[in-house]
Amino acid sequence: MAELVLKVHPNDNVIVALKDLKKGQTIQYKGEDFVLQDDVNAKHKFFTNDMQAGDEIIMYGVLVGKAQNFIPRGGVMNTENTRHAADPFEYRPYHYQWTPPDVSKFEGRTFNGYHRKDGRVGTANYWLFMPTVFCENRNLDVIREALHNELGYAVTDKYKRYAHHLVEAYKHGEDIGSLDLAPAAPTTPNDRVFKNIDGIKFLNHQGGCGGTRQDAGVLGKLLAAYADHPNVAGVTILSLGCQNLQTKQLLEEIKLRNPDFDKPLLVYEQQQSQSEEQLISDAIKDTFKGLIEANKIERQPAPLSKLVLG
Question: How many structural domains is the chain composed of?
Answer without folding.
Answer: 2
